[in-house]
Amino acid sequence: MIIREIYAKTILSRSKVFDYVINPYVGCQHGCTYCYARFMKRFTGHSEPWGQFVDVKVNAPELLEREVTRKPRGRVWVSGVCDPYQPLEKKYELTRKCLQILLHHGWPVTIQTKSPLVLRDMDTLKGRDKLEVGLSLTTADEEIRKLFEPNAPLVGERIRALGQLHLAGIRTFAMIAPMLPQAEELAMALSGNVDYVLIDRMNYHYGDWVYKKYHLEGARSDEFFLARAHELASSLEKMGIECQMVF
Question: What is the CA radius of gyration of the chain?
Answer without folding.
Answer: 18
